[in-house]
Amino acid sequence: MAHMLEVQSLSRRFGGLTAVSEVSFSVDKGEIFGIIGPNGAGKSTLFNVIAGHYRPSAGTVAFEGKDISGRTSDEIARRGIARTFQAVNVFTQHTAEENLRRADVAHRSHNPFAYISERNRSGSANLNEVARFIGVADVLGGAAGSLAYGLQKILGIGMAIMASPKLILMDEPAAGLNPSEKKTAAKLIRRLRDERGITILLVEHDMPLVMGVCDRILVINQGKPITTGAPTAVKANPAVIEAYLGEEYEFA
């Protein structure tokens, strides 16, 4: 069976700087696949190439057997790939419900002005279901900016879910969260896969979360792949241990 996502010899250069060099990996349907590495390793650049924000300098990205290399982010989203961001990306002055509704309209129409004409309609039938799923049903009427930081991050995940994606690219979902919020985020990531059938590609610095939720992990350093494997194999790999010397990661 073909892989859901297949990255082959992917490179991205910025002038004389090579941010990503000859990276290859695949993600299967229903998998939670992690990408880890030190700051500056090329993780975000790799994500941005897959999501269509950067064009690859070399190599290919295929989704469900079709080449999406160099496609725009809108084209890639329409194929079933959604993305969340490290920073909170909600509309803080609008209610949680309006944020979900905006995401729904944007994903369906890809028209930046569509929300103006559609905001008073009943909207997607699954808005309330998504709100319950991510745990914001009781705060839909409140301003998103008044929510706790952890709930704002989760609301961002909910906005991605409104697209009914097949694959979600998650960029550091645990960044800035307290220990309790990290446990909630980890549980939600598993539920996305187990209950909604969404495949997850995850970039994250929090090693307990990564080791606890991922089926396989790719480690990159200085833009180059070190190894790919199950969490137990990755954390015992001497090359990985060496690459992280001096880094504040917990591999225990």
3D architecture notes:
There is one protein chain. By secondary structure, the chain is α/β, with parallel strands linked by helices. It contains ten helices and ten strands. The chain has helices spanning about 45-50, 75-80, 95-110, 115-120, 125-135, 150-160, 180-195, 205-215, 230-235, 240-245; strands at about 5-15, 15-25, 30-35, 60-65, 65, 80-85, 165-170, 200-205, 215-220, 225-230. The strands form two sheets. It has a six-stranded mixed beta sheet with strand order 6-7-8-3-9-10, with helices on both faces. Strand 7 (about 165-170), helix 7 and strand 8 (about 200-205) form a beta-alpha-beta unit. Mean pLDDT is about 90; it is low at about 110-120 and about 250.
Summarize this structure as a short list of keywords or feature phrases:
alpha/beta; 6-stranded mixed sheet; 4-stranded antiparallel sheet; about 25% strand; globular; disordered C terminus
Q: Give me the side-by-side strand order of the main sheet.
A: 6-7-8-3-9-10
Instruction: Please work out how many helical segments DSSP would assign.
Output: 10
Overall 3D form: globular
Strand content: 15-25%
Provide the succession of SSEs: EEEHEEHEHHHHEHEHEEHH
Mean pLDDT: 88
Give the uncertain stretches in residue-range form. 112-118, 248-252
The radius of gyration computed from the alpha-carbon positions, rounded to a whole number of angstroms, is: 18 Å
Helix content: 25-40%
Instruction: Give the end-to-end Cα distance, rounded to a whole number of Å.
Output: 35 Å
Task: Report the structural category.
Answer: alpha/beta
Count of DSSP strands: 10
* Biggest pleated-sheet summary: 6 strands, mixed
